[in-house]
Design a protein that fits this description.
Length: 429
């Protein structure tokens, strides 16, 4: 009887130990611990979640093919070069750090190797201006000569607005006219958006000014007799918007921003800051301990004047983008936010007008870089700088489409047929 009891007790203990061992094994496996039969070792691994847009790309790690994208891989901790390749698209590559028991995300957006163009306008365009919210494009269609002496063309001259939003059935391709030339002499007009992207200020070559609604035809344009008052109101609106963004920052970031940054722009989702360093300093660690699973690209916290950086407010990480002289070939504009427009403690803050030479894609993860003869896109952490368009375009004008799949440029592909350019969409994805 005693032997039976002992046997039963031993069996129960063994069962409990087996259950505990199995549980620990499952937990260890879930946390990334693996047996390495090659090196005869047991240790933790990191989980790499690799996705691509478009899907179905090939994933390489340190030059070795692994699998298609949209997959998870267990990899030993360390630094790796990850490459994503798909036919018809430019390769994506980044050096990342994999940490044990940590999920590392690899999100590759691929850009076409052979971008296509299609015309958005055909009547000729001058002075295109992108709205502050990036969803509308205003431009002037000048008066053109009649087709022949005996045929009268329908005049499209005036000011037009094109929505850069994707709508069902391609309805977004139709621009709307907001003022006709027969109402105003718009041929030499200059256009300026209101901070809320709802109105346009039109100034003529005779120093007249008119306020236009951007969502309808202005049958009777409203004269603006005192531009100074309107400019002051708009400046105050801009200052209020920028100050709202700044006040959302933590005090430590605010201190660095006021003393060592000239901010160029916030990302569309307002989680990142593109800036030029004005003084040498070190960005202090704001989030301690650091967040797990953040961008695995190596960061730089020591900043130097003359360099451009992107600071991720949400993840508290800072990335070197490049030297200002290499990325911005024209002088930076005068700050749109003057010290007297901001209240303490940000009275010395320097905020630049958005510069078309470097701007955000609507993804909030990519920057568009415009030079004399090409347009490039790169990840906001300074990696994967790719040429997405190389060809003629006028006045350095480049505007991202709201879906981040196209860019709008101003160019003339047939100067012998027409003296002025037109707007073209460049499909980059």
């Amino acid at each position: 009887m005693a032997i039976k009891n002992i046997t039963s007790t031993v069996f129960s203990i063994a069962t409990v130990l087996v259950i505990i061992g199995a549980s620990l094994t499952v937990i260890a496996y879930g946390r990334g611990y693996r047996l390495d039969f090659t090196n005869k070792s047991f240790g933790t691994t990191g989980l790499v979640a690799a996705t691509s847009d478009p899907t179905g790309a090939q994933l390489f790690i340190d030059g070795k093919p692994k699998s298609a994208t949209n997959t998870n891989l267990n990899i030993a901790p360390g630094w790796y070069t990850v490459t994503v390749v798909k036919n018809g698209y430019q390769p994506w590559e980044k050096r990342i750090r994999v940490q044990g028991e940590v999920l590392t995300r690899v999100d590759a957006m691929l850009f076409s190797s052979n971008p296509s163009l299609f015309a958005l306008t055909t009547s000729g365009v001058t002075n295109p201006v992108l709205s502050p919210d990036g969803t509308k494009l205003a431009y002037v269609v000048p008066e053109v000569p009649e087709a022949t002496n005996g045929a009268q063309m329908v005049s499209r001259a005036g000011v037009w607005v094109l929505d850069l939003l994707d709508k069902p059935l391609g309805l977004n391709r139709d621009a709307r006219q907001i003022v006709k030339r027969e109402q105003l002499d718009t041929d030499q007009a200059l256009l300026f958006w209101s901070p809320d992207s709802k109105q346009l200020l039109l100034t003529t070559n005779t120093n007249e000014a008119y306020l236009l609604e951007s969502d309808k035809l202005n049958d009777i344009p409203k004269p603006q007799f005192d531009i100074t008052i309107l400019q002051k109101d708009w400046d105050e609106m801009r200052a209020a918007k920028e100050k709202e963004k700044l006040l959302s920052l933590k005090d430590e970031v605010m201190n660095i921003a006021t003393s060592s940054m000239s901010i160029l722009s916030f990302s569309p989702d307002e989680t990142k800051i593109l800036y030029e360093a004005s003084h040498s300093t070190t960005i202090p660690v704001i989030i301690n301990p650091p967040l797990i699973g953040t961008n695995p690209t190596e960061e730089v916290r020591e900043i130097k004047p003359g360099n451009l950086y992107v600071y991720d407010v949400k993840e508290d990480r800072n990335y070197f983008v490049g030297m200002t002289k290499d990325l911005i070939t024209q002088p930076l504009p005068t700050p749109s936010i003057q010290p007297e427009t901001l209240l303490q403690p940000i009275s010395n803050f320097k905020f630049q007008i958005s510069n078309s030479a470097i701007q955000w894609l609507p993804t909030s993860r990519h920057l568009v870089i415009t030079s004399k003869d090409k347009v490039e896109v790169m990840d906001c952490d300074g990696t994967n700088r790719k040429t997405v368009y190389a060809g003629p375009f006028w006045d350095g004008f480049v505007a991202p489409w709201s879906n981040a799949g196209r860019l709008v440029i101003l160019t003339n592909l047939n100067p012998s047929a027409q003296a002025i350019g037109n707007l073209y969409a460049v499909n980059i994805r």
